[in-house]
Amino acid sequence: VCLPYISVYAQTTDFGAIVGAGYSGKIVKGLDYSVEGEVKTWGNFTKFNRLKVSAGLGYSFWESRFKVSADFDYILKNRETYMENRYRVSGGLTYSEKIRSFKLSLRAKYQASFYDESHAYHKYNPKTYIRSRFEITYSFFSKPLKLYASTEMFIRLYKKDARFIDEMRTVVGVNYRLNKNNSFDFYLRADNEVQVKNPANIYYIGIGYSFK
Fold first, then answer.
1. Considering the entire predicted model, what is its pTM?
2. CA distance 179 to 210
3. Of 166, 137, 173, 162, whose CA–CA distance to 152 is shortest?
4. Exposure of 167 in the CB half-sphere (CA atoms within 13 A)
5. Do β-strands 12-28 and 200-211 pair in parallel, antiparallel, or remain unpaired?
6. Which long-range contacts (CB under 8 A, 24 or more apart) does 62-71 make?
7. Are 166 and 190 within 8 A, CB to CB?
8. Coil vs helix vs strand at 108
């Protein structure tokens, strides 16, 4: 299930990179916060795609099996002839279960993206989605390495007559922990549009740094 879904009708294939960093901390037991930022390129790595800055809160309960989260994102999107401001709010619920060295997680998230129409009109504003993600991780005993893979479905809600999955996202990566407060992520990501006219397949190389 973690292999990318590639439409036989794909019209566009592209490659890009993602570089990000994030900070997280605890407010009280079970309640944490995070601040993240990332820059994304595409156009075979040569063009700036977007800048995203995020802030979020999460509350874990029932021995950390469940987590409720809320996030706010600011996105500066390159629209070729101008830069567009976007704002996104989301709320999610994640269930996780540990089985020896494995951890299985299932997340459902509601997302609404609001578009600045100063330069262009958007027929649908906001655009709303349900995002459903399954992730599996494997931690090596006594080693600072963790492998992970995930697959995610984007279920479109904003078009009443076309509410279906229009994108699949697949991620495979490795997390390397420098110490208890610092770690790096190295990953590959595939964003594959499906069931839409002229679907695009974009493949990313990513690196992220996390500290707390």
1. 0.92
2. 11
3. 166
4. 15
5. parallel
6. 64/30, 64/96, 65/95, 65/96, 65/97, 66/93, 66/94, 66/95, 66/96, 67/93, 67/94, 67/96, 68/92, 68/93, 69/93, 69/94, 69/109
7. no
8. strand
> Which residue type occupies 185?
D
Q: Report d(CA 124, CA 96) in Å as an integer.
A: 34
68-125: pLDDT as tens digits: 999 999 999 999 999 999 999 999 999 999 999 999 999 999 999 999 999 999 999 9
Name residue, tokens 């020896």: 100
How many degrees, rounded to 5, is the angle at CA 63 between CA 60 and CA 64? 35
Rounded to whole angstroms, what are the CA distances from 199 to 7, 43, 131, 194, 195? Answer: 7, 16, 18, 6, 8
Going 9 to 82 to 56 to 122, the CA torsion angle's sign is negative
Q: What share of the chain is helix, strand, coil (3-state, %, to 5)?
A: 0, 70, 30
Q: Token pair of 155, please? A: 């279920």
pLDDT digits (tens, 9 = 90+) for 121-175: 999 999 999 999 999 999 999 899 999 999 999 999 999 898 999 999 999 999 9
List C-alpha distances in Å: 29 to 36, 54, 106, 174: 21, 22, 22, 28
Instruction: Give dist(CA 48, CA 40) in Å, integer.
Output: 6
**Cα angle vertex 85, ends 200, 51, to 5°?**
65
Residue 49 has pLDDT above 70, yes or no: yes
